[in-house]
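quick q for whoever's on today - can somebody do inverse folding on this one?? i tried earlier but teh output was garbage lol. tokens:
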């Protein structure tokens, strides 16, 4: 789903050029030319049409950008706002930043700079998430969520810890003793030699394309295992 931007601007020429620029860069753009319409779209929709960024002109013929910014930040404080200001308008720039705006771009703006500022602002607003990969397997460690090619994989707690151990040590030999020690530390129960083999098999059954010919977790005979690098 494309990133959605609300452009609040009452100059038709700027609206047309910005909409074309943003749409050409893969953004989905809605527009509003008054304070009331902007608040209706960004706030009064009840969250049905969320935006990842508000691009907001300070001066509007009907209303002003400060009121829109205040309403947005009160209702959805995490939604970033970038003000469009006149190049010599220091007062409006400072006022906007003090109200909680995330950035400002002076008119006339340079298209590539504007796109870079938009991308950076959206990136900063998004929560960081650590994702670890093992081949086609993706592990979201913040949510303990595992998927393969978009499909969720259901793992037990020990299977998840075992997978994470391999995924965070790609290409490295991990002896069976090290694996058992790591699982013991996290599970509180010592893993017997035969039990470890069972867990390895169960994990392979869930993550390998062909468990009889494992590619993601390979056996190093007499030593241990090695995850695909």
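ok took a stab at it. sequence:
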């Amino acid at each position: 789903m494309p990133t959605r931007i609300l452009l609040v601007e009452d100059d038709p020429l700027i609206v047309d050029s910005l909409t074309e620029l943003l749409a050409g860069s893969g953004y989905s753009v809605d527009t509003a030319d008054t304070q009331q319409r902007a608040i209706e779209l960004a706030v009064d929709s009840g969250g049905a049409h969320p935006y990842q960024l508000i691009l907001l002109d300070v001066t509007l013929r009907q209303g002003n950008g400060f009121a829109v910014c205040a309403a947005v930040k009160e209702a959805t404080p995490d939604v970033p706002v970038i003000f469009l200001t006149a190049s010599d308008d220091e007062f409006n720039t400072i006022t906007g930043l003090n109200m909680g705006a995330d950035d400002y771009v002076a008119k006339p703006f340079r298209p590539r700079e504007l796109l870079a500022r938009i991308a950076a602002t959206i990136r900063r607003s998004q929560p960081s998430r650590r994702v670890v990969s093992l081949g086609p397997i993706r592990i979201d460690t913040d949510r303990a969520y595992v998927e393969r090619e978009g499909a969720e994989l259901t793992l037990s707690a020990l299977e998840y810890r075992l997978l994470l151990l391999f995924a965070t040590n790609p290409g490295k030999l991990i002896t069976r003793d090290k694996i058992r020690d790591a699982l013991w530390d996290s599970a509180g129960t010592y893993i017997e030699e035969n039990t470890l083999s069972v867990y390895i098999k169960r994990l392979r059954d869930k993550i390998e394309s062909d468990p009889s010919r494992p590619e993601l977790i390979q056996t190093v005979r007499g030593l241990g295992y090695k995850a695909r690098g």
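fwiw The CA atoms of residues 33 and 161 lie 53 Å apart. also Helices lie at 12-24, 35-42, 65-75, 90-98, 111-125, 157-167, 176-187, 193-207. so keep that in mind when u check it
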